[in-house]
Amino acid sequence: RGVVAGLGAAAVAGLVPSRLWAAAIKPDDASALLVIDVQNCFLPGGSLAVKDGEQVVPVINKIAKSFANVVMTQDWHTPGHVSFASAHSGKKPFETIDLAYGKQVLWPDHCVQGTDGAALSKDLAIPQAELIIRKGFHQDVDSYSAFTEADGKTTTGLAAYLKARNVTRLFVAGLATDFCVAWTALDARKAGFETYVVEDACRGIDTQGSLAKAWADMDKAGVKRIKSSDIA
Ligand code: VGL
Ligand code: ZN
């Protein structure tokens, strides 16, 4: 038992404020990193650019070195997708509409199948990534989550894949914190995974209070909020 264990015991005993000591988290074979939607449309110059989105790339590349299992996602819409403002006459991006499955934020056209905007960032350097899940490809249903489409029932197959591979612990990073990252993390909890969001490996869109709401929802659902420096 070395210095770290000693310091930990001191923290537990109340001698060291707990915020000064946190155990490093070491990803094991039952852990997977989910890299959400690090695609050109969400990066500078993209049609739905997330502020400072490019800053997640080096952080994700660094933490990915600690993971044997990495899954990436790609938002992958049809032309004229229901989530595009341009598909609804008189509607502008960031307005909302009511669809059969609930409230839908309308977006600029983005991540259209096969376009350069839909491509993953060329700066991602994660050669061991084993699966790319595409989502949002049904014309009339959006899918922020990597697990379940916005109708709340159509599955992408990701939970079954991870369970078949004996993965129980998920670390979520990418874009955008308040949409695809948050919905993925919430669904991960619903599917029974231990779930961490690596906050400095994410950036948010923040429309109509969405970022604060996303963190509150994730906290309530038992999603653990960590920093990349917490990962060994
Ligand atoms: C996303 C809005 C629309 C995301 C995808 O990746 O968070 N946000 N489509
Ligand atoms: Zn989308």
From TrEMBL:
Question: InterPro entries in the record, alphabetically?
Answer: Isochorismatase-like_dom, Isochorismatase-like_sf, Isochorismatase_Nicotinamidase
EC number of the protein: 3.5.1.19
Please provide the Gene Ontology terms (biological process) for this protein: pyridine nucleotide biosynthetic process
Q: Sorted alphabetically, which keywords does the UniProt record give?
A: Hydrolase, Metal-binding, Pyridine nucleotide biosynthesis
**Pathway entry:** Cofactor biosynthesis; nicotinate biosynthesis; nicotinate from nicotinamide: step 1/1
**Pfam families reported in the protein's UniProt record:** Isochorismatase (PF00857)
Domain Isochorismatase-like residues, every copy:
31-224
Single Gene Ontology MF annotation: nicotinamidase activity
Q: Which CDD domains match?
A: nicotinamidase
NCBIfam families named in the record: PRK11609.1
Give the family, as the similarity comment puts it.
Belongs to the isochorismatase family.
- Which named protein is this? Nicotinamidase
